Amino acid sequence: MTAIGLAVLALMVGVTAQMQTAPNAPLPDAQELKRRVMASMKASEKNLENYSCIVQDQIHELNPDGSVKKHRSSMKEQFFVNGVEIDHTLEKDGKPLTPGDAKKEQEHVDKEVKKYSDPKEADKSKTRDEKEVDLFLRALRLSNGSRVTREGRSTLVYDLSGDPAFHPKKVEERFAEALNGRIWIDEQSGMPVEVRFETTKDVKIGGGLLANLHKGFWLHLVQQREPDGVWITKSVDGSGDARAALFVHARFRFSEQLDKCHLFSVNTQQNVQPPAESPAPESEK
Q1: What CA–CA distance (Å, rounded) separates 146 from 144?
Q2: Which secondary-structure segment (H or E) carries 40?
Q3: What is the DSSP letter of 280?
Q4: How many Å apart are CA 49 and CA 45, to the nearest integer?
Q5: Closest CA relative to residue 129, chosen from 257, 276, 11
Q6: Cβ pair 217, 241 in contact under 8 A
Q7: How far apart are CA 224 and CA 31, in angstroms?
């Protein structure tokens, strides 16, 4: 499971909370919060379509003693078309793409924009994601709820853990069932402010033959509220120990930082071009 995938899973824990801000007001029912997740996710997708952000990714493959064995980085422009995330890679390992690679990347982005400008294709992608979210949430338990004030806003706090009454089958379910952590939810908007969790046991993919995410994987996600009320994932950090296939065994650390977010408008037609920092092709001039 990639850093981006994990980040998306963490983001999808966001819920639509009841508008109660008094310190002694009853807390929302945890199961009701889980049942409202789909509506909150859809609203978030719609709001994110107004934004384009620069994303800085860092991935460190570690030696057994924790020293860095290999480092990879990338800078991307991230935006959404009909609720589907599009990533446009601008740099790798601190260097701009070569003209040939930049051309291939632009062609790939153009293809993605054209595909998801079709509402039917976008709906297919979002439906797949929603099914994964539903599976993930059913394996989670929210407990020990409380209410605190954070940056002047009423915030709900819950412990996250796997539901012992749930019997996981798919990867998303097994991942949720294996974690312990905590989530902070902005009560007015229902969106997560911060998520922290760590796996308490191995998560096996393909019975352990394809991959194995070992106990102790951790992830930390922080969101930031923009002036117009939209919540943007500001940072995602994590570290873990995994084995892929039968031979590759890696310890890794990753981080993702979003910066320079700005508003823009996409008219989702078949000839839509994504926002880009490079000059437009000659054919468009």
Answers
A1: 7
A2: helix 37-48
A3: P
A4: 7
A5: 11
A6: yes
A7: 25
To the nearest 10°, report the CA torsion of 224, 226, 231, 236. -30
Integer Cα distance of 171 and 206 in angstroms:
9
Query: 144 or 230: which carries more pLDDT confidence?
Result: 144
Residue 53: which residues within 8 A CB-CB, separation 6 or more? 77, 78, 79, 232, 258, 259, 260, 261, 262
Q: CA-CA distance, 148 to 178, in Å (whole number)?
A: 27
Q: What is the pLDDT of residues 119-172, one digit of tens each?
A: 999 999 988 887 777 777 778 888 999 999 998 999 989 999 988 888 777 777
* β-pair partners for 248: 244
Domain ranges of the chain: 3-284
Residue 106 tokens read as: 């632009």
Of 199, 196, 173, 170, nearest in space to 183 by CA: 196
In angstroms, rounded to a whole number, what is the distance separating the alpha carbons of residues 265 and 282?
23
Determine the pLDDT at residue 127: 85
Helices (H) and strands (E) in the chain, counts: 6, 13
SS3 content of the chain, % helix, strand, coil (to 5): 25, 40, 30
Do 141 and 161 touch, CB atoms closer than 8 A?
Answer: yes
Measured from the Cβ of residue 18, the count of other Cβ atoms closer than 10 Å reads 17
d(CA 255, CA 236): 6
| Alpha carbon of residue 82 to chain centroid | 17
Beta bridge partners of 80: 85
Nearest 5°: the CA angle 244, 245, 246 is 115
Q: What is the CA radius of gyration of the chain?
A: 20
Q: To which residue do tokens 């994964």 refer?
A: 132
- Angstrom distance (rounded) from CA 166 to CA 138: 8
pLDDT score, position 116: 94
